[in-house]
Amino acid sequence: MTTVNDPAVVAEVTDLYLKYEEALANNNLEVMDSLFWDAAEVVRFGVTENLYGSEEIRNFRASRPNPKIEREISHLKVVTFGKYTATVTLEFRRIINNVEMFGRQSQTWYRFPQGWKIVSAHVSFLPV
């Protein structure tokens, strides 16, 4: 039987997610890349882009016109399934061109022999 939300696993993934959030806010490409699975199968659906594979994700981040993402997160929820699979969901608030925007984000994490990696991610804004 799979253990859901083992406290140690939840804490581990939560710490990794917060590391990702800090890297996102500071445009630390090295840390963000290290937390994503380096494979053709990784997917990131963004606000305006669909990215398939680690190369597309890296290229997008490197060419982003506004590289620092300042936002407030809320409703951060980490759910783990056994010791190898986790989901992270949250809501966020950003000010873009003096307009308050609300969005949501989800990630699926998997523990590989080399550690936890994001294997799928989604970011979207709610309608204004």
From TrEMBL:
Family annotation (InterPro entries): AtzH-like (IPR024507), NTF2-like_dom_sf (IPR032710)
Pfam families named among the record's database cross-references: AtzH-like
SUPFAM superfamilies (UniProt xref): NTF2-like
Listed name of the protein: DUF4440 domain-containing protein
Higher taxonomy: Bacteria, Bacillati, Cyanobacteriota, Cyanophyceae, Nostocales
